[in-house]
Amino acid sequence: DIPREIFEQVEIELKYEGYIVRQTAQINEMRRLEVKVIPPETDYNKIDGLRLEAREKLSEIRPMNVGQASRISGVSPADISVLLIYLAKEGK
């Protein structure tokens, strides 16, 4: 017989496994964004596809990396995608 405590622990781990996997993926993605540097001379007004509010906020705050940019109120996930594409295209 399996002790009740071990059975409950396995049951909990199985129940939340999908959630834990998703959270781990999100954490890894945030770590990746934290190291993606945004050059200080970046002119956000020249990045096609950024919403006006995002351009204004990014120009004002001047985040050092994409992780910081993603935490700015008014900068959407779509804006972050546009920024990542721009940085990749510019080779930065």
Describe this structure as you would to a colleague.
The chain has 92 residues and is mainly α. It has one domain (4-89): DNA polymerase, domain 1 (Orthogonal Bundle), CATH 1.10.150. The chain has helices at 4-34, 52-61, 66-70, 77-89.
**So, the CATH homologous superfamily?**
GidA associated domain, C-terminal subdomain
Q: In total, how many beta strands?
A: 0
Q: State the separation between the terminal residues, measured CA to CA.
A: 59 Å
| Shape verdict | elongated
Question: What is the string of helix and strand elements?
Answer: HHHH
- Count of helices? 4
User: Level of helix content?
Assistant: 55-70%
In the CATH scheme, the class would be Mainly Alpha
Q: How many domains would you count in the coordinates?
A: 1
Give the CATH topology.
Answer: DNA polymerase, domain 1
Q: Radius of gyration in whole Å, from Cα?
A: 20 Å
Enumerate the spans where pLDDT stays under 50 for 5 or more consecutive residues. none
Q: Any guess at the CATH architecture?
A: Orthogonal Bundle
Major beta sheet summary: none
Q: Which structural class matches the secondary elements?
A: mainly alpha
Strand content: under 5%
The overall pLDDT average reads 93
Assembly annotation: single chain
Blueprint (SSEs and pairs):
Layout: H1 4-34, H2 52-61, H3 66-70, H4 77-89
In short:
64% of the residues lie in helices and 0% in strands.
Features:
92 residues; mainly alpha; DNA polymerase, domain 1; 64% helix
